[in-house]
Specification:
Low-confidence stretches: 434-442
CATH topology of the largest domain: Rossmann fold
Largest sheet: 8 strands, mixed
Strand content: 5-15%
Number of helices: 19
Order of helices and strands: HHHHEHEHEHEHEHEHEEHHHHHHHHH
CATH architecture of the largest domain: 3-Layer(aba) Sandwich
Strand order of the largest sheet: 3-2-4-1-5-6-7-8
Radius of gyration: 26 Å
Number of strands: 8
């Protein structure tokens, strides 16, 4: 997410070199970098001009702070201005009240149906919502198999699904509302019909459905890969039926981030969530301050910790924490660590949350190699006996050959695993001695 902008912004500090203060020249060099990056990211020219002018005026008027480097001072200005553009005030976390009616809007191909399922999954994680209280339905009769897709997603979620007998959107909406009321569901999530592009027929039909449903939440799903076009789509929906918040889908794909950067400033509507993968759990709350930090390669440790807490059970965290505090680690623990990481996400997705990673210039090939190595390590440990996992010193040449055959690897891969494991053990012992391991997996 925002890799394109982040990569181009990473050179901002270099514009200041060894200068000890902000000057008109180094400010202009940095502003040129920002302008080029935003235009390449498909941010509308007018918004780029506005953003750059605001940064320039603040930088010029900035009082010199002796203890702060000019590059850091400028980055702080850019960070704060990005946060303003993305939405200085965070949107209140999505909450489902009694008798809620949630309508999801969007064009065909925007990821609307999948985003609805992800939203339901997210709502199910909230302590005051029971999945038995939720109903999913659809009035999308234009995209082949759209209703079938939603029914399958409802089964994955173990949430009630209703298929109307009517095949006309307005009549089907009336039937769905009657069913929801008769069965006393707390919340209805309704998927609506999309088109390949905005047209008057679609919007007229959508108005009729909105008037019937009287939704408590209207959510617009936009494909982040469409860039400036997504802003045009959002304006058309807003003028026709209005919406409360947006979900930007496909933020994990090769998107340049221009839509997300521009949305709040152009539409005056908040982004509530971003879709960051294909799994039903791959929906994140949108935090402007965290996103601004990620754009400037400052990382986002808070979101990473939240993802870990969602994916790793409390007892697993406590068990690993105890092992770290003791300064002891077995190959079994090592395997559990790798499994935990895999649940959080790929190696590449995890690194994006860590600060300063652009400096290491980690290439896609390096990430692929790292993922392959982890798969080998897991296969090797799975091929060991419980005793071998606890006492790797038992691994004689004959044992290594047996394990290699079972894991489908070379004996050199086993030697590599043991080397990495010993390095990790030394690091864990050091952490334990200085007291840094406590709460590491909290």
């Amino acid at each position: 997410m925002f890799d394109f902008i982040s990569e181009r912004f990473s050179s901002l500090v270099q514009a200041f070199g060894s200068n000890k203060r902000l000057t008109e020249q180094n400010i202009q060099e940095a502003l040129t970098t920002i302008t080029d990056a935003l235009l390449e990211a498909d941010v509308p020219y007018a918004l780029v001009t506005t953003f750059v002018e605001e940064v320039k005026q603040e930088a010029i008027s900035q009082k010199v702070t002796a203890s702060v480097k000019p590059g850091d001072q400028f980055i702080k200005i850019v960070h704060d201005r990005i946060k303003q553009f993305l939405g200085a005030q965070e949107h209140t976390p999505f909450a489902i009240e009694s008798n809620a009616r949630v309508m999801v809007l969007g064009l065909q191909g925007s990821g609307k149906t999948t985003s609805l399922a992800k939203l339901v999954k997210w709502v199910m994680t909230q302590k005051n919502v029971s999945q038995q209280q939720l109903l999913i339905a659809s009035v999308d009769y234009y995209r082949p198999a759209a209703i079938d897709q939603l029914e399958q997603l409802a089964k994955q979620l173990n949430v009630a699904f209703y298929r109307a007998s009517a095949t006309q959107p307005v009549a089907a909406t009336q039937e769905i509302l009657a069913y929801a009321q008769a069965h006393d569901f707390s919340a209805l999530f309704l998927d609506t019909a999309g088109r390949l592009h905005v047209d008057n027929q679609m919007l007229d039909e959508l108005r009729s459905v909105v008037n019937l449903v009287q939704p408590t939440h209207k959510i617009l799903v936009l494909d982040a890969m469409t860039g400036q076009e997504s802003l045009t789509v959002a304006k058309a929906f807003n003028e026709a039926v209005g919406f409360d918040v947006a979900i930007l889908s496909k933020m994990d794909s090769d998107t340049r981030g221009g839509a997300a950067f521009s949305f709040k400033y152009a539409l005056k509507k908040p982004i509530a969530f971003v879709g960051v993968g294909e799994k039903l759990t791959d929906l994140e709350l949108f935090h402007p301050d965290r996103v601004a930090g990620r754009m400037l390669d400052m990382g986002d440790i808070v979101t990473l910790v939240e993802k870990a807490e969602q994916c790793i059970k409390q007892d697993e965290q406590e068990e690993m924490n105890k092992a770290l505090e003791r300064g002891e680690l077995t190959l079994q623990d090592f395997a559990k660590q790798m499994d935990m990481m895999q649940r959080i996400g790929s190696m590449g997705s995890i690194l994006k949350y860590l600060p300063g990673m652009k400096e290491f210039k980690i290439t896609p090939d390096m990430l692929r190699q790292g993922e392959l190595e982890m798969k080998k390590f897991r296969a090797i440990i799975s091929s060991m006996t419980p005793e071998e996992r606890l006492q790797p010193k038992m691994l004689t040449a004959s044992r290594k050959e047996r394990i290699a055959r079972g894991a489908g690897v070379q004996t050199a891969d086993i030697t590599n695993l043991i080397t990495r494991f010993e390095e990790t053990k030394q690091y864990v012992k050091l952490m334990s001695k200085v007291g840094l391991s406590k709460g590491f997996f909290r």
